[in-house]
Amino acid sequence: MHLKRWITSVVAVPLLVLLIYKGGESLFALFIGILCVFALAEYFRLVFTEKIFGLIPLLGFFIGPAIIFAARANSSEIILGLITINMIAVGLSSLLRYKLDPSVLDIISKQVQGIIYIPLLLSYLVLIRNGIDGISWIFLLLCVVFAGDTGAYYIGSYFGRHKLCPAVSPGKTIEGSIGGLTANVAIGALIKSFFMPQLSWSLSILFFILVGIVGQAGDLFESELKRSGDAKDSGTIFPGHGGVLDRIDSLLFAAPLAYLFKEYILV
């Protein structure tokens, strides 16, 4: 398992760095749009099982990427409009099915949750990339989040004794959580020192800690989805890591926080 994780990382990380640094804003948005489609497919398989190809879930495959490209255009109005259109469309479709299938309301709630959870939260990555020093901020966010994931995984594997949230994820420990937060701060401080010295130290440390906390919350939230769908991983696309959702679950919760700090706090 450890070898597969490292082989996947060695192959994927340089490609990701090249994409962010040389790809430009449009290619980055396209990449996030593709991630969005894969993540939505995994999410729908977890929450809908056999209903993944129903009309209501399928609508998400059109609305999701559209939200990403609306973010590329820096249009919060279009993003809000797409979320509104999705809600109206699934609401209208439910009227045609409710008599024969009252569970359609549950399907709608899970589809709407998926649209908020994946494309809307992913759109913050595009908004960050579009802004001033966008490349630096994307690298900072990714490094802090992935360092936390790695720190939590290895510290938890070797030193974990006390369960963090056993009802959701029995394998996660308090020791792993502390190790992850330590890695968040250590890597964040290192990058800030060399590449973003203009940022306030006190606010930066607060940012790294909060990213670690919400990132772990995002990881646990995805664990709830997997537990409800009786799945170990959301997918198998990344050997040793699982699916797309398994790889970006922490990032989904951290991206809006990073956008908030970038635009309004760490200025």
How does this structure look, described?
- The protein contains 9 helices and 2 strands, in the order ααααααββααα.
- The mean pLDDT is 91.
- It is mainly α and 267 residues long.
- α5 packs across α9 (244-265).
- It has helices at residues 2-22, 24-48, 55-72, 76-97, 104-130, 134-159, 174-195, 201-228, 244-265, and strands at residues 163-165, 169-173.
- The protein has one domain.
- 79% of the residues lie in helices and 3% in strands.
- Strands 1-2 form a two-stranded antiparallel sheet.
- The chain starts with a helix and ends with a helix.
Secondary-structure topology with pairs:
Blueprint: H1 2-22, H2 24-48, H3 55-72, H4 76-97, H5 104-130, H6 134-159, E1 163-165, E2 169-173, H7 174-195, H8 201-228, H9 244-265
Antiparallel strand pairs: 1-2
Helix pairs in contact: 1-2, 2-3, 2-5, 3-4, 3-5, 4-5, 5-6, 5-9, 6-7, 6-8, 6-9, 7-8, 8-9
Rg, nearest Å = 19 Å
Tally of separate helices: 9
First CA to last CA: what distance? Answer: 41 Å
Provide the structure class: mainly alpha
* Largest sheet report: 2 strands, antiparallel
How do the strands of the widest beta sheet line up side by side? 1-2
Low-confidence stretches are none
Estimate the mean pLDDT confidence: 91
Shape: globular
**Helix and strand pattern:** HHHHHHEEHHH
| Helix percentage | over 70%
Strand-residue proportion? under 5%
Tally the structural domains.
1
**Number of DSSP E strands:** 2
Please summarize what this structure is.
The chain is an all-alpha fold and 267 residues long. It is 79% helix and 3% strand.
